Amino acid sequence: MGSVIKVEDLSKAYQLGDFGTGTITRDFERFMARIRGKEDPFLKIGEVNDRTTKSQSDVVWSLKDINFDIEQGDAVGIIGRNGAGKSTLLKILSRVTAPTTGSVKIKGRIASLLEVGTGFHPELTGRENIFLNGAILGMRKAEIKRKFDEIVDFSGVERYIDTPVKRYSSGMYVRLAFAVAAHLESEILVVDEVLAVGDAEFQKKCLGKMGDVSQEEGRTILFVSHNMLAVQKLCTKGLLLANGQLIDDGDIDGICEQYINSNNQDLRSNFLADDTEPIGDEYVKLLSMKLVDSSLEDVKDIYVTTRFGFLIEYEITNDLHSPDLSFLISSINEDKVFHVVHETGNYTKGRHKWVAWIPENLLNNMEYLFTVGITTSNPVLIHVQHTIVFEVHEDPESPTRNNKYIGKMHGTVRPHINWQRL
Amino acid sequence: MSDTNTESWDIEITPGHKLFDMKLRDTWHYRDLLFLLVRRDFVSFYKQTILGPIWFFVQPIITILMYSFIFNRLAGIKTGTIPAPLFYLAGIIIWNYFSDCLTKTSTVFRDNAGVLGKVYFPRLIMPLSIVLSNLIRFSVQLVLFFILAGIFYLKGMSLMPSPVIILFPVLILIIAALGLGFGMIISAVTTKYRDLAFLVSFGVPLLMYTTTVVYPLSTATQKYPGYSWIVKYNPVTAIIETFRYGFFGTGDFSWGLLLYSCGVTVVILTIGIVVFNKVERFFVDTV
Description:
heterodimer; A: Rossmann fold; Coagulation Factor XIII, Chain A, domain 1; 2 domains; 6-stranded mixed sheet; 5-stranded mixed sheet; 9 helices; 19 strands; B: mainly alpha; 14 helices
């Protein structure tokens, strides 16, 4: 086996801000430093890429000192939040841009799919675009010809193959584009979140195809996606990136768990106490958000049999047109469980307090995300959006379980259902 | 982990690069893409038009009509023994090829940022496809030139091609290389600072008047002996003059000027390749 990709001390710096008259003097300084054989003066002051804080310098390290090896046949999921450096890493691996320092060594052909349908020309027919797109992705004409029928078959747009792609529906467009990419013959395939498009059936087909590629054909896959389920299904190993640094690599399940936990750590601390800085825009400020019991006292532990409430306090600081309060409860994998909208009707300036009661015997014993939003329609504006994590614990005495079954009850909800003997 | 020092790697991605590394092997592998891009340019040019490729003729025909009227009739610039329309057309098709190669290449990074930012292929493919696409255009216009020459010949014009005509393929090569070289230099500079792009958009059409498209070199030297060096040392002038001399047997052909053009072309193309190579690796971050 042996490694097919070897990444050593890879870093990439980006310049923030606008390029204009100011930047040319700096370019000149950098040039002078270089011809005198000195280090680039502006890279030294580069800092960790945390997009939430305003930076001191305008050079930022999108990737910093990344090291890893990938062995042949591995399916590697690259995980991280927005801005963690996933796309930059893929861009360097697919040779779209060059690193600032460090090196990547690759064995075999590498094909990258950072986007589906790159280079599709709207005026050309599906047939012509298959050839053009295939060639852009590095296929030879003979190779495309050989696989043409297979590609058309996979895409399922046979009827439109001689129609200009500008007349295609967006779904057909994506199908055709993915079909071309899926038939690439390369030892290494780099895939960005291209599966975010297309209908569920087609997404499944794509995932299946990519699974085939790694498992049966023994090719190496690098896959970036926010869809944890897809990553876990497809990949065997994972790389976790945060703020341009490699946090960990290893078995995919461990990496996914670590990613989810690192997210939760942040969200758990996101309960707004009365004394924290309020969040919001110039109209609405979210002052506090907490979990309360029936007597409006703070509650720590919630069981499946607990009736509890989300207490939300906000201040309207500007004239608003009938704001709505809404919340979304989703599982930790961000699968939505349910969504509730409440018209507050009351939009006077000042402080408002609402509590949303979650009945007992509704949620299962697991972690949930609770996202609250304060919105107005006409025009639709989200004034405040805030997510927290809360956990519901098991209650052995719960009427919704049978104590003969000791495993976890399935599903994201666990309502108390009435049984009637007939 | 095995000892990596002894392993051989197919691709190495590093920040540095070799000055003249043209990645020709890579480019050769992508030759099909080159032809498909040329085909795309050609086909998409006349899609949804009724006249199709005939549009390639329209622009030069209207231009020579205008030039004949303005420069020949109105301004009274004599074109020697060569009929005015033919004289202009010979200059126009060469100049057009040069300026099309230059202007299209100079915006190649910006025009194709979408594709180049998502997929790797040897970047040189893009400017090469521009040169080849325009070569098709050039050939079509050359056909027009032959048709027009045939018409004038039947009407009694004397046509005495000189042996210099065998240089014709070399002329095309020079003009393409010159346009490509200038274009690559400009493209490299404009990825970060777009100032030069403005200069190109109005400068290139004006530059045409410093070549012998609308007047013979002899006229320029006679009337403005003090400034004619500008025209003389424009590297495109020698190409146009050689082309005319080759076909019509009259004009100001000189080996010296032609060699000078060759020299300039080699220098410009070399600089172009070096800066293009340097910029292609990072342009995605700044374009």
